[in-house]
From TrEMBL:
<dbReference type="InterPro" id="IPR029052">
    <property type="entry name" value="Metallo-depent_PP-like"/>
</dbReference>
<dbReference type="Pfam" id="PF00149">
    <property type="entry name" value="Metallophos"/>
</dbReference>
<dbReference type="InterPro" id="IPR004843">
    <property type="entry name" value="Calcineurin-like_PHP"/>
</dbReference>
<dbReference type="GO" id="GO:0016787">
    <property type="term" value="F:hydrolase activity"/>
</dbReference>
<feature type="domain" description="Calcineurin-like phosphoesterase">
    <location>
        <begin position="15"/>
        <end position="252"/>
    </location>
</feature>
<protein>
    <recommendedName>
        <fullName>Calcineurin-like phosphoesterase domain-containing protein</fullName>
    </recommendedName>
</protein>
């Protein structure tokens, strides 16, 4: 029913589209796909080049109002997760991919924290139903278990909040271990947890997904960009040397408009797409790379 487990590494492609946090707004999500000529209204993959990759940086769910009028919400937030899986299947048939990252709000729901679930979403899936769907090995946790915490496409690195030196220290720079550890816990049912999950697994899972400076929760990049750009550049030097990347793309760190920092090496892509935030305009980022020369061009696409 669902797409295959996503690899940690992909080869470079000419066009990558990066979409920030969705928070239940499936209409604006689909408008991104239509406006950027990725999907036709009859749900066919029409992207050019055909091998275009879309990366959505997590937080597809939890649509509780952050200042917006809640009347916009028609479908429960978890429909976004299911829709993104369908879109990846369509993209694969057409030669591309739609890759969804895990965000802190997906992880909150996996852990039974539903405080950002809207009234509309609760009408369709109450706490008991939601807890069951996200339980290890069940429908929604199984979708999450196919997704990544960190992703690398050619020289570009993607994650929800940020990748810090301490995360790489814990895995000796091996990004596979990050994804595999989280995938293991998401897919291990309660009855076999004690048998299959080690203390090391639990410790790494906490470091990657729960700790305030975890990959899903940290806002260290944005804090440093605003307060100490020299330290930010030192951190980026460290990360880029150890992962062999030239630019990092993150969600979670909410900004008014998609902006680069760190001499163009870090992009903050969460510009409040969802109408849970009271914004009329929303954005996505296109990365165009010459696969022969590796010359790169970035384009911020604004919609309303």
């Amino acid at each position: 029913m669902y797409t295959d487990v996503q690899p940690t590494y992909f080869p470079i492609v000419n066009r990558i589209v990066v979409i920030g946090d969705i928070h239940g707004d499936i209409a604006r999500l689909m408008q991104c796909f239509y406006s950027l000529n990725l999907i036709s209204k009859d749900m066919k993959w029409i992207a050019e080049p055909r091998d275009t990759i879309v990366v959505q940086l997590g937080d597809q769910i939890d649509s509780l109002s952050r200042g917006g009028d809640p009347s916009w919400e028609v479908l429960p937030d978890i429909e976004v997760m299911m829709q993104m899986d369908k879109l990846d299947k369509i993209a694969k048939l057409g030669g591309g991919r739609v890759l969804s990252m895990i965000g802190n709000h997906e992880m909150m729901n996996f852990l039974g924290e539903f405080s950002y679930v809207s009234a509309k979403s609760r009408e369709s899936y109450d706490v008991d139903k939601r807890r069951k769907l996200f339980a290890p090995g069940n429908q929604l946790s199984s979708i999450l278990a196919k997704r990544n915490i960190v992703l690398k496409i050619g020289p570009y690195l993607f994650c929800h909040g940020g990748l810090l030196p301490m995360h790489l220290d814990s895995v000796s720079n091996n990004l596979h271990i990050i994804n595999d550890t989280v995938r293991k816990i998401l897919s291990t049912r309660t009855e076999s947890y004690q048998q299959n999950i080690t203390g090391q697994d639990r410790s790494l899972f906490h470091l990657f997904t729960i700790d305030p400076n975890s990959i899903l929760w940290t806002r260290e990049y944005l804090t440093l960009a605003n307060t100490n750009p020299d330290i930010l550049n030192m951190v980026l030097d460290n990360i880029m040397d150890r992962t062999n990347c030239k630019a990092i793309f993150v969600g979670h760190n909410t900004v008014d408009t998609i902006v680069p920092a760190g001499n163009g090496r870090i992009f903050f892509v969460d510009a409040g797409l969802s109408r849970a935030y009271s914004k009329e305009n929303y954005q996505a980022l296109e990365i165009y790379t010459d696969v022969n020369t590796f010359d790169v061009k970035y384009n911020v696409f604004t919609m309303s």
